[in-house]
Amino acid sequence: MESKELENQKHEKWMRLALEEAKKAEKIAEVPIGAIVVLNGEVIGKGYNLRETTQDATTHAEMIAIREACQTVGSWRLEEAQLYVTLEPCPMCSGAMILSRVKEVYFGAFDQKGGTAGTLMNLLEDQRFNHQTHVIGGILEAECGQILSAFFKELRTRKKKLKKG
Length: 165
Hints:
Layout: H1 3-27, E1 34-39, E2 42-48, H2 51-54, H3 61-73, E3 82-87, H4 91-99, E4 104-109, E5 134-137, H5 141-164
Parallel strand pairs: 3-4, 4-5
Antiparallel strand pairs: 1-2, 1-3
């Protein structure tokens, strides 16, 4: 098997763990986004969206995963770490990735309304910052997008029923 295929399998393995985190969010009616931070082949941080639960705008999956990873390694620097997230990061999360020096970011679905890892702009690879993060999008894109589409479809259906009822 060629190395490119092995690399893809590795990324898919980690993204499936991020999807497991997203499913935890889905179970509690949060937007199903999940993230993990990997260092030396081990998960050192994980998280899923908790914004509605906490009523805290900063409790995105990536932010929670980064916080946990920093606590695990005892440093704010994650210079050799990879972050996997099911949806393209927003400006806040991209900023946290830059500031924590995450080495590589891999995401699933592209975010047409708020993605700052290539869609609206690419903060992570912007040469004007003192740190750049390598980015690859579209890992298990269909699966990552589907969980979000199904969630929002269900949410719209529930809202229509409430209006009628």
